[in-house]
Amino acid sequence: MKIIGLTYDSKTDYQPKAGDPPDAHAEFDHPDTINILVSAIESQNFKVKRIGNINNLLETINALGVDIVFNISEGVSGRNRESQVPMLLEMAGIPFVGADALTLALSLDKVMAKKIFIADGIPTPKFFTIDTVDSLVDADHLKFPLIVKPRFEGSSKGLAESSRVGNMEELKTRTEYVINTYKQPALVEEFICGQEFTVAIVGNNPAQILPIIQIKIDGSLQLNDKFYTFARISSDRLEYVCPAHIGQDLKKKLSELSLRAYNAVECLDFARIDLRVDRGGRPYVLEINPLPSLSIEDVFPLLAKEIGITYEQMVGKILNYALGRYGFN
Ligand SMILES: Nc1ncnc2c1ncn2[C@@H]1O[C@H](COP(=O)(O)OP(=O)(O)OP(=O)(O)O)[C@@H](O)[C@H]1O
Ligand SMILES: [Mg+2]
């Protein structure tokens, strides 16, 4: 029986520090998620060895005794945080599930990912970055409304109602907040009014596009000015509609773009792509998550149900794609 090492960052491993924003640990997994993942892997006839975070990995890396690592570790800070565990594993020659360090870093850094999308002709909202608070001088070459996000975060960290800005004054205030609170540059994008979708992909050559999910906020699919904020994730105002009730044309466009994004940044085994479609029906890739959440509150259980398998089988499927890449099955 194969032994699967599990690397993760549990919320319980970190104490909030003075001055931390309320969403400081949003990327880390709840112990319940880790336990559910362990049971899912074990139900697929594997044995799990819990490794934990990067410090535990560093202490045990020379005698891990696992065949492959299932890594869901988000890392603590910086744009390379998600790459830290994969880099160590790569260095030690230990196989692991999911994309490698390079893909993880350049996708967490939304600006780097957008540059790759642009080079590959994948539409993404127009943008600019602001590195320091006093460098915001000539920002009006994009049309308001704009949205201000931390350059390298996930889980909607740093996203609140005031992230959508309608004038220079609001832009300045929000940019200052993002730079000072998250200690990183702000990414400013054109705000795409319209609809929002998320597309998960699993597997490698050929990759499989899972049913498209549409985001419903406050009971409406026409989101217009509404968007996903940190507060909305944990409220019942947000729903996932699966499969999305959309025509064949849009379905084809979203699938094709998602697959192109998956290949552009060279994802492996699984990923999730977030897209918005403007009022004219034009789709834009917002970002790609090569390490999407497997939490049961997120989209994977829903997708499993939609394709007629269990959540456990979905986890097994992702793991088997990785094992296949390393020639294990
Ligand atoms: N350019 C945009 N136009 C309109 N809405 C946007 C735009 N960029 C982001 N959003 C909204 O903000 C949400 C979060 O943005 P994004 O997906 O880029 O960040 P994230 O925090 O990495 O996401 P996740 O929660 O998926 O990890 C999106 O799901 C969307 O609702
Ligand atoms: Mg997102």
Could you explain the architecture of this structure?
The chain is of the alpha+beta class and 329 residues long. Strands 8, 9, 10, 11, 12 and 13 form a 6-stranded antiparallel beta sheet that branches. The protein is globular and about 60 Å long. It has 3 domains: 3-98, Rossmann fold (3-Layer(aba) Sandwich), CATH 3.40.50.20; 106-123 and 192-290, 2-Layer Sandwich (D-amino Acid Aminotransferase, Chain A, domain 1), CATH 3.30.470; 127-190, Dna Ligase, domain 1 (2-Layer Sandwich). It contains 10 helices and 13 strands. A hairpin with a 5-residue loop joins strand 8 and strand 9 (208-209). The structure holds adenosine-5'-triphosphate and magnesium ion (MG). Adenosine-5'-triphosphate (ATP) binds next to strand 5, strand 7, strand 12 and strand 13.
**Weakly predicted, low-confidence segments:** none
Q: Oligomerization state of this entry?
A: single chain
Tell me the β content: 15-25%
> How many DSSP helices?
10
**Termini separation (Å)?**
12 Å
Mean pLDDT: 93
Q: For the report, how would you describe the main beta sheet?
A: 6 strands, antiparallel
Give the fraction of residues assigned to helices: 25-40%
The CATH class assignment of the largest domain is Alpha Beta
Shape: globular
Q: How many β-strand runs? A: 13
CATH fold annotation of the largest domain: D-amino Acid Aminotransferase, Chain A, domain 1
Q: List bound small molecules.
A: adenosine-5'-triphosphate, magnesium ion
Give the ordered list of helices and strands: EHEHEHHHEEEHEEEEHEHEEHH
Query: What is the H level of CATH, i.e. the homologous superfamily of the largest domain?
Result: ATP-grasp fold, B domain
> Using only CA atoms, what is the Rg?
20 Å
How many structural domains are formed by the residues? 3
Question: Strand pairing plus helix content: what structural class?
Answer: alpha+beta
Q: Which architecture of the largest domain does the CATH hierarchy give at level 2?
A: 2-Layer Sandwich
